[in-house]
Amino acid sequence: MDDAIGIGLVARPLLFVALAALAFLPLEHVAAAHAQRRRRFATDLAFATFGQVLVRLGLVLVAGGVLARLDAAAPDRPLLAAIADRRARFVVETSVGLLLFELAGYAYHRLAHAVPALWRLHEIHHSSEMMDWLASFRQHPLEILLVTLAQNAPLVLLGVPLGAHATVLVALKLATVFVHSNVRVPLGPLRFLIATPLFHHRHHQRGGAVANFASLFPIIDLAFGTHSDETSRRFGVERRLPDSFVGLLLAPLRRGDR
Q1: Is pLDDT above 60 for 174?
Q2: What number of helices (H) and strands (E) belong to the chain?
Q3: Which residues touch 99 (CB under 8 Å, ≥6 apart)?
Q4: Which of 152, 191, 206, 255 is 20 to 30 A distant from 216 in Cα terms?
Q5: What is the pLDDT at residue 33?
Q6: Which domain holds residue 108?
Q7: 144: Cβ–Cβ under 8 A, 6 or more apart, which residues?
Q8: 3-state class (DSSP) for residue 27
Q9: What DSSP line would sit under 72-102, residue for residue?
Q10: Residue 258 domain-assigned?
Q11: Using CA atoms, how far apart are residues 241 and 122, in angstroms rounded to an integer?
């Protein structure tokens, strides 16, 4: 592997984590949604550093190849090419891309809670008992590969141009950190249009009916009857999982671990 590529694989995810910390740590200090503060950092810091590097390698080695094959089957003419104005076309392409990305993510998310094999991976993300910006990185690398393929495949197959596609990826990556953050965002009625930490924290509620599967648009949950406007304070999963980074990586792969 070229040295420059290798450095990029490590530096880019770590740079994003550093920028997320600079943005959200002050916000969580001045506008906290929950008074409780995390006391343990090691496991989620490992997911945010070593885990992100593993994810980056997997995306390059596996997801990139799969999506490249799908791209070969995509139409030659870009999506919405009939729109003459380039700026208007970009806005519409990005909007359509966001909606497709969200719908695919919603479908995968519902499956992740219904299919035992997928839940064992997704359960790692739900094992965090503290909701803050750092908790957003507690995701099993294998699950990130699967959801990346599920969400990106429709955009590739329908020929969403690279510029709009990249904008969608950046928007959802930022939104993922935001909705996990311990930040109070009083949007009023607008909370039904844009996902907030309050909305997503309800999804992480320990016990009770699962709700709020969407990442960005709560209206998707409203449409499918999975929306809840309740406030949650108790997070995590009912059964005991390992506390360490390595233990959580291996937990879904153990045959007797159910």
Answers
A1: yes
A2: 11, 0
A3: 217
A4: 206
A5: 87
A6: 3-253
A7: 55, 58, 59
A8: helix
A9: HTS-SSPTTTT---HHHHHHHHHHHHHHHHH
A10: no
A11: 13
In a domain, 16, yes or no: yes
Residue with tokens 């490249």: 68
Query: Which candidate, 88, 66, 93, places its Cα nearest to that of 78?
Result: 93
Question: Does residue 222 lie in a domain region?
Answer: yes
| Side chain identity, residue 195 | A
Give SS3 for 210.
coil
Q: For residue range 26-43, list pLDDT tens digits in order.
A: 999 999 988 878 888 999
Burial class, 53, CB count within 10 angstroms (exposed 0-12 / middle 13-18 / buried 19+): middle
Q: Tokens 């020929």 identify what position?
A: 159
Taking only the tens place, the pLDDT of each residue in 53-65 is: 888 888 777 777 7
Between residues 156 and 183, the one the model is more confident about: 183
List residues bridging with 205 in a β-sheet: 235
Is residue 169 in a domain?
yes
Tell me the DSSP string of 135-191. GGG---HHHHHHHHHHHHHHHHHTT--HHHHHHHHHHHHHHHHHHHSS-----GGGG
Tokens of 242: 């390992």
* pLDDT for the residue numbered 7: 57
CB contact set of 247 (below 8 Å; sequence gap of 6+):
241
Q: Tell me the C-alpha distance between 146 and 189, whole Å.
A: 33
- Residue 54 structure tokens: 């593993």
The structural domain count of the chain equals 1
